[in-house]
Amino acid sequence: MTADVSGNPKERDAGAWAGHDLGERTVVYDERDVILYALAVGAAATDLDLVFEERLRVLPTFALTQAQWAPDALGSLGAFDVTTAVHGSQRLVVRAPLPASGELTMRARVAAVWDKGSAAVFDVEVESECFQATWSLFAPGRGGFGGERGASRPKPRETPADHELEVRTSPNQAALYRLLGDRHHMHIDPEVAKAAGMPKPFMHGLCTLAAVTLPLAAAVGAHPADLVELEGRFASPVFPGDRLDARAWTDRDDPAAVLFETAADGRTAISGGRARFRG
Q1: Residue 143 · residue 219 · CB < 8 Å
Q2: Is 49 in the active site?
Q3: Which fold has domain 163-277?
Q4: What topology is assigned to 9-140 in CATH?
Q5: Where are the domains of the chain?
Q6: Quick check: is 187 catalytic?
Q7: CB neighbours of 224 closer than 8 A, spacing ≥ 6?
Q8: Do 60 and 103 meet the contact criterion of CB atoms below 8 Å apart?
Q9: pLDDT in tens, 68-122
Q10: Of the listed 182, 184, 185, 254, which one is catalytic?
């Protein structure tokens, strides 16, 4: 049922947004968008099935660039302060491969709102025939409405990793990735980044998360386009040019999946990561 969110948005309890329908949108994309995305998340010119239209396979995380309108739409409605809210975590379930070009129709809603006390977390869910994706948006100052707290942050793993990987980000990576749709100024403008509390422009969390899936797939003998599930929590910022150190463990409950976390300059960047590839 759609929530009653009439009246001044700033005066509503955050919990009233739960169930709110964000509508439907159809987007059109082509092979150039798919290739640009692959390059933006770290594909090499030699990865011909990711960057050459004659052999093209679509990275499933490309869908997240096409669905970015949904969390942006919730912010524009006044559910939270867009200058202080941050992307807390992301989930993606792949239902079918994306075509190399065409139309994609999606529908979005606020699936849940969690009360963290000093903040609220809005889960924005986007669905299409090809995927289901959920953005968890951490909004300071919107908690305390008496709702359920939701899941706690994942604990670091203490067992030795099955795989240790290195991911090199590019100094131009955020500038390139923002051409895919997420043009928030803090990823390109130093002054806006400083106003947001960052020393300089930083990487999009979704770019960092997608970039890690390429070496993860290679480590487990899979193709990155065969990703079927992905999730991760954004623990700290990554800056263009940073080296990411990733550790991964085979999921003992699902051998087709890997659990992972990444660090940049000794800081945990992505925690609670999980990726599963089609066998």
Answers
A1: no
A2: no
A3: Thiol Ester Dehydrase; Chain A (3.10.129)
A4: Thiol Ester Dehydrase; Chain A (3.10.129)
A5: 9-140, 163-277
A6: yes
A7: 50, 59, 213, 214, 216, 217, 218
A8: no
A9: 999 999 999 999 998 889 999 999 999 999 999 999 999 999 999 999 999 999 9
A10: 182
